[in-house]
Amino acid sequence: MPPLCPNSYGFSMKISLTLLFLLLPLSLLVGSVSLSPAEVWNALYDPTSDPTVRFIIVESRLPQMLAALLAGMALSVSGLVVQTLYGNQLADPSLLGGNTGASLGAAIAKLAFGGSMACGATSLSGIVLTVAASFAGALVVIALLGLCSHYLGGTLQLLVSGVMISFALSAVISLISFYATADGIRSYILWGMGDFSSVPLSFSGVFALLVLLPIAGVLLSAQPLNALLLGPDYAQNLGIGVRAVRTRLLELTGLHAATVAAVCGPISFIGLAVPHIARLLLHSADHRRLLPVCMLLGDDVALLSLILQHLPGERGTLPLAAITPILGVPVVLHILLRRR
Questions:
Q1: pLDDT grade, residue 207 (50/70/90)?
Q2: Phi, psi (deg, nearest 5) at residue 5
Q3: Does 2 score more than 80 pLDDT?
Q4: 107 alpha carbon, distance to own chain's centre
Q5: How many CA atoms does the CB half-sphere of 286 hold within 13 Å?
Q6: What's the pTM value of the predicted model, to 2 decimals?
Q7: 195-232 burial string, b = 16+ CB within 10 Å, else e?
Q8: CA quadruple 176, 179, 184, 189: dihedral positive or negative?
């Protein structure tokens, strides 16, 4: 069993919570419209405050903040689990194919159907159609990967199957793009840049449910994850059903990857970097300590990305998918240099 580090755990939790309490108000203050702390406070707690300011805070910045918190938490937990299951610290949630499945769904919605689709008396368009199609595409890929996990014994075979599924879907996306219009391609590229603004406040509850329920399942699997660190044979000797545990965890983390990719775009790089930051702070590989720290650090990184995204102010917003690698690449390079 990996050693426990109580002092490092307490220090890591304090650092993570301190950053979180600093970044939460900043995420409501920074944006295209400059607002004072008093205006933000009144918009949150005074129903008679300026309706314009209240709309900016309640209908725009607050949902984005909640989306960043949920996405950061989901991706960091997914990244940690994937790295443990594959035995590779350079793995991230995109290896599950959820990003590619979500990209295929978005491509079908924006390139094949032009952003609107009617099915009988029901019609979907805009962001609703994109999110629904992306989520459906990601779930199909996760289901295929779960099926492969049930029949394939080794993690290397499972990794190769996930990569092959992603290659096949990328080829389909290329074919759809070849026949698409210029407006459709532009809309698809904008979706691929990632954004936290696609989650309205009314949908935040559903988003939270899709994130928190799988996290609860992962937290209950901390002991099997610790056993898998020492190899599948060791875990099997402890009475753990390795294949069943692996399939269940892949489905849970796949649901995370599917949900975040559908709602926020392909920003899974957070899931690659945050687990390494948690290990560096904790000096431990115990998932009982790593999972809570990863959740908080994921929130910190996602909120920081949201703030950096809005720094240009009135000149617009930066692509979220470009900010997350900028924050994560130094961490990965540090890991590679340490391994050298």
A1: confident
A2: -130, 80
A3: no
A4: 19
A5: 13
A6: 0.83
A7: bbbbbeeebbeebbebbeebbeebeebbebbbbbeeeb
A8: positive
